[in-house]
Fold this protein.
Amino acid sequence: MRQPRPVRMSGAKPETGHFEAFLENPARFLLRAWQECGELAEFDLAGMRNTLMVGPDAHEAVFRASDAQLSASAPYQYMVPVFGEGIQYGAPLDIERQQVKMQANALRPAQMRSYAQVIAKEVEDRIEDWGDAGELDVYREFQKLVLRTSTHCLMGSEFRNKLTEEFGALYHDLEQAISPEAILDPYGASEIFEKRDRARGRLQDIIMEVVRERRAKGGQHPDMLQTFMDAEYLDGTKLPDELIPGMVVWIMFAGFHTSSNTASWTMVEIARHPEFVPDLVAEVDSIYHGDELLSFASLREIPLLEKFVFEVLRLHPPLVTLMRQVMEDFEYKGHVFPKGDTLVISPYVSHRIPEYFPDPERFDPRRPVSENVFAYIPFGGGARKCVGNAFALLQVKSIFCALLSRYQFELVGPPEAVVDSMPSLILRPSEPCQVLYRRRS
Amino acid sequence: MRVEIDLDLCQGHGICAQEAPDVFRVVERPGAYDHVELIMESPAEEARGRIEAAVRYCPNRVLRIVD
């Protein structure tokens, strides 16, 4: 069998390579790279050699590799000033691994039972004044809603009621700093980095204040902050309090826009595929009676809605790239990638391989699940797979149970006008993206 | 009945241990990721329902029943 060799992508500029083209829209760039070069597509990001690896075999090879061979930390060092020193990729590997476990502990089924209630209640509150009909600005609406559900599950009702607005604004300043210039040098002199550092400082203060108050009062709270306050490393030492704000910022970056953009795209696909909606509505009606909040158990068993969201994540995975830096020579199908190379996996591209997803651009929630566990990777895979995947699904399912039980939706404008857009590094629907809602008769 | 676990892909979430605590347990491994291990190599037929739930709800799809 012929072994694939990386093919170099055309169009590189002398100094910056493909950097500008990549950043303009990474999803589209990578799709083009695959179409032009095939399974292994080499491109240059400002002097760094990157190879896009497409398909289940490539995913499997990368997901099975050890951290010592392929580093997730090295390509993401620009996140260190956002999360803070001593947190995640700003900590040694062994500490980071234990911190990931602390994040996973905040998202266990026991905790999820209470988050399911919080999310359902926030959605109810939000739609209470929607009235019988109206128009939604989809992206903004779900951003607001998920900011509320996230801050509430993360830091409890007192924080949610007092500080959500300020938190949202500070978070925005952190996000703005995840820019092309940050990827090149996150510590350079720049106004957006000054704003980032001020926002990070203020977040440190307001979250530490909540931690101090709670420590003084004692008691237990059913939220993620509590699990961070109780967290211990394997050797029994406690997670230092001053690292807790970093844990909060980290989990927000992992879960906020990824979930809110997925909810936005789910709304768009519901509005432009009325043919699938009656089945969804029947399923929701069978478990939802409006008089009680949905439980974790009932949200766990809602297969049609879940498959619908899976199909949304297939075509519109919010994270378009997963990057790894080669630390020790890495062999794949007879080709050796040397230390220093960057390997790129793209759910966006791999979810469009016709062999695994026939007629890939067609939205079809009835598609069978691929037997190959490496074909469909919206949450990555292996030991570094997203630990929030069950929480993310719970949240999106909870939101759409509440919405579908009350309203019907219709897209404003032609269906093909809404496309994948990447003004930041997280995929979302393009604007304008408006939906009309009307109370179900 | 035998159960296979793909340990490269296991993150030790422990969902299986909650569904079938008599079959699975999570082990902490200093310097590595937690993962799940089997308490018994060949679980009794009586545990099949619980093991099937563990297979279904495993967030990483690492479990497989081999008859």
